[in-house]
Amino acid sequence: MTEISLLWITLPFMVGFLIYLLPQAARYLALAVGIGSTIYSLLPLLSDFTLNLKLLDQFGVTLLVDDLSGYFILTNAVVTIAVILYCWATSKTAFFYTQLILLHGSVNAAFACADLISLYVALEVISVAAFLLIAYSRTNRSIWVGLRYLFISNTAMLFYLIGAVLVYQHSHTFAFTGIQGAPIEAIALIFMALLTKGGIFVSGLWLPLTHSESESPVSALLSGAVVKTGIFPLVRLALMFPEIDPLVRWFGVGTAILGVSYAMFEKDTKRMLAFHTVSQLGFVLAAPEVGGFYALTHGLVKSALFLMAGSLPSRSFKQLKQQPIATPLWIALAIASFSISGFPLLSGFGAKVLTMKNLLPWQVIGMNIAALGTAISFAKFIFLPRGGSEPRLKASFWPPMLVLLGGLVLANVIYYEAYTWANTVKPLLTIALGWGIYYLIIQRVSIKLPRMFEQFEQLIGMMSLVLVGIITFLLRGILV
């Protein structure tokens, strides 16, 4: 299996360059890579397969594929397939599919490595490929948003590299295990960079503008898979080191509440979805031991919602209330909204129940508030008028919806033990309460939350604040 694993890691990069030689086959080659990753991801999830391969033993460069990696790799694979199907009948060039597959391969690498230096390389490649996709339309706006993303990403990775060097200086290894006993400043720098890359808390406020201003297929990739490359190492480290687990959980709760607070009052569909991505990433971190399942569920539903948002006649909820949308599109929106709100029969239900069961007592109130905020936010889609004849959906709209929404139904069986009366009644009451609050209060008020923390010149300051917070938290742990 070692040879198969190495082939799987390198295949996207080989195919990426092959696409330039065979541009007519770009879609087929890209789709084959996505299907290959799907099959590989099922190995650790459906069997006892685990890969633990030391490539450079002296430096601790290691590949580790287990069931946690399996959930994240599966998320990346399914989202990539859906985006390829969505773009199938469009005029996307070989350049687009090349960047898409290079991005897919580097995201896979980030989910498979268990050392700081391999992760650094993977995250840097991801930054460049994501920038090229964000700027693909070549408009002034898309180029500015892409450069903004690249600057923030590279700044965060500079801090990460300094932290990794400090860990090596202390432990003489780049393996994740070298973090044990490393200087506080090294851990703080690495964590701050990963939190920024993952769109977590205030240092992740670059995310709403980037995800909302990109083309819908790119937004689906970013929210569904790419942003999780910053989350995955945090989950891995929280599971490896019990002393780090509380720090990750604190940021999980804070992020869930921060993101949903903005999402509830946002009037723009894509910005609402982007802020809600921030919130849902907090759910992944709030219970690291079950974060893989939640990441899979979120990846499927959020990429579906971004693709649907691209087919709506307007980005403004105010205008959508005046213009009934086609009933098939409304049904697809409703299924995705039900899942992310925790409605039974869809995987969002099991993921939320499992997460809530693995919270620590001090997290419960905060995460229930975030869950209520989720129901309020997605009531905006549920209460949209339906029955219109526009827009006419493209033929390529339904295959990715079949993959993503069908995936939500299939993934529902992963935690079928969730189906008890007590577990079923609670989310139903939460959803009903959320819809009531939206209908009676939220849709009647106009609150505009400040955007100054999203401004380019403020983002580095937000990273500094998070760095100070991490150091304070770690020092408190030592002093206590």
Automatic annotation (TrEMBL):
It is a multi-pass membrane protein. GO terms for cellular component: plasma membrane. Coiled coil: none annotated. The chain crosses the membrane at residues 6-22, 29-51, 71-89, 94-111, 117-137, 149-168, 188-209, 221-241, 247-265, 325-347, 359-383, 395-416, 428-447, 459-479. The keyword Protein biosynthesis does not apply. Residues 115-376 form the NADH:quinone oxidoreductase/Mrp antiporter transmembrane domain. Belongs to the CPA3 antiporters (TC 2.A.63) subunit D family. NDH-1 shuttles electrons from NAD(P)H, via FMN and iron-sulfur (Fe-S) centers, to quinones in the respiratory chain. The immediate electron acceptor for the enzyme in this species is believed to be plastoquinone. Couples the redox reaction to proton translocation (for every two electrons transferred, four hydrogen ions are translocated across the cytoplasmic membrane), and thus conserves the redox energy in a proton gradient. This is Cation:proton antiporter. It comes from Romeriopsis navalis LEGE 11480.
